[in-house]
Amino acid sequence: MLHDLSLAIVGRLLLAALLGGAIGFERGLHRKPAGIRTNMFICLGSAVFTLLSFQLAQRYGDPSTTRIVSNLIPGIGFLGAGAILRERGGVVGLTTAATIFMNAGIGMAVGGGAYGTAIFTTFVVLAALTILGLLEDRFGLHAHLATFQLTTPHPRKAMKVAHDVFKNLKIPVLRYQTHHLGHESVLTYDADVSFHQEQEILRRLTETDAAWEIVSTPSVQG
User: How far apart are the C-alpha atoms of 43 and 102, rounded to whole Å?
Assistant: First the structure.
């Protein structure tokens, strides 16, 4: 039953689970959709299929040892595509999809016995997710989809000021809506902005007689 289960294979599978879990732990800390279990399963599954590709080829005399593993790439691409969503003109899940793709590559490297490659790649991925993420936040480079809402009794004046603000800052408005609320009007603008751009927009909007607020700021790259 377990005659083909060696310590080397067990070691590879455990390493794949560990490396995938490490990436998943970082994703889970930032409340991303693909957490510890998802990333662990992706890495472990990739390692398993890579091992099976070699084992079955040897057992049945198939000269193509990469027959199974070659189909992993389009399969992982399909899984990653499912993590990418369009939300109110923005794109959500690009980093998650890229992490899934890299995690599968790490699993394939472990399954193929390239331990150094797998460990080093995991280190690079974790460094990119943590250190580069901190730098993006520090310098306000991380883009997000922000919704700016203005409530005013003078919609024409507020509308002109708001349009001029976005135009002068060269920030395209992804969606604009207006509706009446009693004797006042509510203007809503969706825009893809950095942290510094968001603060500058809010600073300029204070020059109007409108009550303004940011009602949501979902991440574009999560």
Answer: 9
Which element (helix H / strand E) includes 119? helix 115-127
Instruction: Mark whether 68 and 153 lie in a shared domain.
Output: no
The rounded distance, in Å, linking the Cα atoms of 133 and 136 is 5
Query: What tens digit of pLDDT does each residue of 58-82 get?
Result: 777 776 666 677 778 888 877 777 7
Is the pTM of the predicted complex or chain greater than 0.70? Answer: no
E strand residue ranges, 65-131: 85-87, 90-92
Where among 138, 154, 174 does a domain terminate? 138
Check whether residue 66 and residue 167 sit in a common domain.
Answer: no
Kind plus residue range of the DSSP H or E element containing 39? helix 36-59
Among residues 105, 138, 171, which one ends one of the domains? 138
83 near 32, Cβ under 8 Å?
no
- Helix, strand, coil percentages, rounded to 5, for the chain: 55, 20, 25
Residue 149 domain boundaries: 144-216
d(CA 176, CA 197) in angstroms, rounded, equals 18
Structure tokens at 14: 């455990």
